[in-house]
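Chapter review: from sequence to fold.
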Amino acid sequence: MVRCFGPSHTWLVLHIFIFVQEHWLLKSLLWKFDLVHKDFVFEGCSAMDNVCSQGLLLGRPFGGVGILYRRHLAMKLRVVACHSEGRCIAVTIDHGNLRLLCFGVYLPCDDGSQHYHNCMSEVLGFIESIIELYPDYKCVLLGDFNFECVSSSSGYRDFIPLMNEMNLTVCDAMDSNCVGYTYSHNTLSHRSLIDHVFVHNDVVPLISEYKVLLDATNCSDHLPIQFCLSVEGNSSLSVNGSSSCLNSLSGRTVCDYRMGQGEPAWVLF
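The token string follows.
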């Protein structure tokens, strides 16, 4: 898996947070992320242990989320919860007057069944239970939601009550590249916008340079997203001499580690 990062870690050097979805690793193999880069620490959870403990794995593997972050941020970032089935990781980030509660998510695919809605309710309930523990923090939810933000999507309809209650805004319209999709299935000629960033209304003015990236080196069927989150305070959250942006990168994996190339002072996922 680690070799899939390629010969250059340039994109890693330019970011300080990397949210990961679908790493498909057993808990006992999460140490592989420690080999990605000496300046980064990984925290995450596996979705594979339970299914593998039940016998021979049939079909493709699934799930698992996590975050890679720079070692020097250990005092500012804290992992506060991981979903039991590997669908969500929650972290707090404290920097100056900015207090964020961030969720990296991988939500289930909508198959039209009651089981899907039950699973969505369980994951969203988990997220809400963590939010209640941190009332002074502004929320950021990002990752693979597996639904488009349209009224015809049942997953989006399930999500709307939480979105409204937590005063969240989706950042899709901020894409300066105007790509219009984040997932593509070349065989079926299908494209959809199912990877999102939802932020608290008060955080929206801090978001800039939001981009869906089309990169020839990206072998994933998902496109990475990156953005800049401006913060006040000292430069301990900055890289490349920039103290005005909280840099973060978020990527996903399917079979291998799917990561697009980052740029300075931007968040990618």
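Two observations follow directly from the output. Residues 168 and 200 are 4 Å apart (CA to CA). Residues 114-133 form the longest helix (20 residues).
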